[in-house]
Amino acid sequence: MKLEQLLEGVSYTLVQGSLELDIEDIIYDSRKAAPGRLFVCIVGTQRDSHDYAAQCVADGVTALVVQHDIDLSTVPGAAVLKVESSRYALALMSGNLFGNPSRRMTMIGVTGTKGKTTTTHMIKSVLEAAGRKVGMIGTNGIYFLGHHQETANTTPESYELQKTFREFLDAGCDTALMEVSSQGLMMDRVAGIHYDIGVFTNLSPDHIGPGEHKTFEEYRSWKGQLFKRCTTGVVNIDDENTEALLEGHTCKLVTYGCSEKADYRAGTYQLLRTHDFLGVRFHVSGKDDMDVKVNMPGEFSVYNALAALTVGKVLGLPDEAIHEGLGRCVVKGRVELVPISRKFTILLDYAHNEVSTESLLTTLRAYEPHRLVVVFGCGGNRSKLRRYGMGEICARMADFSILTEDNNRFEKVEDILADIRVGMNKGNPDAKFVEIPDRLDALHYAVDHAQEGDLIAVIGKGHETYRDREGVKTPFLERELLEEYARQIGLE
Ligand code: ADP
Known about the structure:
The chain is an alpha/beta fold. The chain folds into three domains: about 5-95, MurE/MurF, N-terminal domain (Udp-n-acetylmuramoylalanyl-d-glutamate--2,6- Diaminopimelate Ligase, Chain: A, domain 1, 3-Layer(aba) Sandwich); about 100-330, Mur-like, catalytic domain (UDP-N-acetylmuramoyl-L-alanine:D-glutamate ligase, 3-Layer(aba) Sandwich), CATH 3.40.1190.10; about 335-490, Mur ligase, C-terminal domain (Protein-Tyrosine Phosphatase, Chain A, Alpha-Beta Complex), CATH 3.90.190. The protein has helices at about 5, 55-60, 85-95, 115-130, 160-170, 180-185, 215-225, 240-245, 300-315, 320-330, 355-365, 385-395, 415-425, 440-450, 480-490, and strands spanning about 15, 25, 35-40, 65, 80, 105-110, 135-140, 140-145, 145-150, 175-180, 195-200, 230-235, 250-255, 265, 270-275, 275-285, 290-295, 335, 345-350, 370-375, 400-405, 435, 455-460, 465-470, 470-475. The longest helix is centred in the middle third of the chain and has 16 residues, at about 300-315. It is globular and about 75 Å long. This is UDP-N-acetylmuramyl-tripeptide synthetase. GO terms for molecular function: ATP binding; magnesium ion binding; tetrahydrofolylpolyglutamate synthase activity. It is an enzyme of class 6 (ligase).
């Protein structure tokens, strides 16, 4: 592509060279320098990659985008373009390089402090139930039409993002659905993208501190940017920050929540539990009337489902698809049921610290199980405070705990368990528990000793697929291991 075409929409000054050059690719990592490539110099928090410009040109790079002046005598022969923000330019140029794929799909962005991942999965499930072909990007990775790959950030760098959109489009996707983090907005990763729908879940103080946002107000204002870049905003009207977050919004708003003024509002919800369902049921009224069942527990599942339902409504999807999509949505490793017996309910969850364990156990307790049983351990070579904390919470909140390994890494499992015991003793000296160091034995024990009506939470690993002993990772898929054992012992 000609440099001039690549720069479409970007404000720049040509400092040196010609716009007639052919550019094959854009890079922002100097180690990828090669002829035909354009290197974008970025001022980062750790270093300023303008320092690598000369080396890149020596390695063959054809053009440079800079944000501040560099010594032109060190970059002979290269085209040099100066822009106000090189990250912004990188985003726009990446869009151009990949043919601006986001303009040819329905774009949906989800932002908020909590519930982004769960809500995007629910939206995907609803859209797919309606026959849409969806590509999804978020904390759990990239998914499209049966493919899955991991990602480093919740919102990838703009170049990777645009490249992924291109893959979605080429594979036949009609919709791209993504989590949009405040960092992603602040770092211009999503610059140049217009969303058909922006979704807001909720806001609470988080991501504030060195290297992240300076204040809560700043964090909120970055999240609010999404509603200046979308056509329709689907927003939680019950959150106390909604009004401030939406200041200066330019989109049409459709609201959801439990309060009277919400466009789509949920009435009181019921908790439902069987061996293969652990969720909520509620009635939606307002602009529409429908009954909804979601196979995910807790009050926040009502909110996440309402957000997904509202997106479905904005897109004009049929009620049956919305109903079906919400009913069957599963997020791997998050309150993921493994229905191996009619007698009890067993689930996997990634809760691996005090706060998430407490929140999970509180949610599960509300279902009034015969016993609430937890299978858990803590990672080796990590904070001991976590061991005390998780031990304390489980001793206080569970009826029975099965202590076992998590990822031991280079520590002895016995030492980790001893630390957990300290916490348990503090939480409840009379807590009932057993110690079974091998996690597979612990899973078998949990199944063998399950009582009618028990709710068993196997926590810590969630969607992880391995266990780490002495730095060696071997496959460990809890879902499969449980299913295999159930088959072996003929469980029904
Ligand atoms: P995110 O992707 O925004 O980090 P997740 O969907 O991964 O959020 O949810 C993280 C945890 O937060 C969940 O395990 C659950 O305990 C809790 N959670 C999920 N949705 C909500 C919500 N709408 N409000 C509050 N907490 C939530």
